Structure formats: C-alpha cells, structure tokens
Amino acid sequence: MMVIFDCDGVLVDSETIAAEVFAEHLQKLELNVSAQECFNRFKGYSMKSCMKQLIEMLGGPIPEHFLVSMQEDTFNRFKSELQLIEGVVPAIDEIERSGWQTCIASGGSHGKMKVTLGKTGLWDRFEGRIYSAVDVANGKPAPDIFLHAAQQQAVAVEDCVVIEDSQAGVEAAIAAGMRVFFFDPEGLGLRNQKLLELSGVYQFCQMEQLPQLLKMV
Fold it and tell me: At what angle do helices 66-81 and 110-120 cross, to 10 degrees?
C-alpha cells in the first residue's frame, strides 16, 4: 500500500507565492490578471500546461526569457518565505509507521522541487521517490504521473492512494484508477463538485486528520 503525495499545496505552502509572482510577470506583459486569478486558473497544472494557456491568453508566442525570469523570482521567494503545510511532517511520520510506502508525484519540475523540498527538509527524506510531470508524456489531469510513480515503486494501482489539492490532480488520480483524498483547508471545494461524490474520493481539511482517514481504505 502506498500514499502518493502531490507537492505544492499538500507538502509545501508554495502555491500562493507562485501565483503572486506569476501575476506580477503577467502584468509586465500587459495582462491584467490578479494573483487570485492565477491561483484559480493554474493551480495543479504543470508549467508546460500553464505555458500553453499563456500562449492562448497572449494570442501569440511567449516573450523570450519570460519563463526563466519568472522562475528565478519564484525560487528566490521560495528560499526566503516557503513553509511546510501545517501538520504534514507528523502526518507522514504516522503514515509511515503504519506501514504505508510513500512517494511524491508533482506537476512541478525536479528543479522546483529541489528548491521547495530542500528548503523544508523533505528532499532528503523522499529522495529516490520523487516524480515530476517532466518524467512523463502528459501532465495532470492526465493520469501519467501517478501511473509512473506506481510503476517505479512496484505498487499496484489499486493499492495506491493519492493526496491532492487541485481539480487537475483529483481528475488525474481518478483517471489512474486510484483512490484520492482531496486536501481542502479553505473549504473551497472543486470547480466540478460532482467529483467529490464519486466512490473512492474523500475530502479533508486538516493534515492531522489524514493518518486516521487512511484507515478507511
């Protein structure tokens, strides 16, 4: 049995920072997009998917150096401001003591996770069990990253549980045939609320609840 953790918004509190920097750089392109709009629109998607959406928004190619500059600013803020999701380390400790295998499967790049997980002390803990959307053909909401993680860890799909905080991630886990726990600390739900009514989909709001909830599966 294995728990597959998403990274951003599940292990590290990175998504608000990333959305703020994204919005700042979009405004330099004369796109009037707020940080909240960036958060809502891009949360859970790989950078490749985000850049595809940006091309549509611009109606043309992305300016040279845009991505490099944005990522540099984002990583600098991560290094100075990033925090763990509250309660996540004790939750992981208890989950692993209960006999679950664990790994990470994220839409973010390995470089990004080296920064975020390194800053918060989780890189060394999960090293060798960290998978990125760049490792597979399609990012979330396609199931590729979760299927890849299960294959690499030699765990059957039906024995995997995914911890996600985004619409794209929940859709990807469902498409992979895995049970999924939707972490929703703000109680905002999903754009498609019907997903939360499906068998094998669970919702929770505090990371401290997760070890006990996993006993349901």
Answer: 10
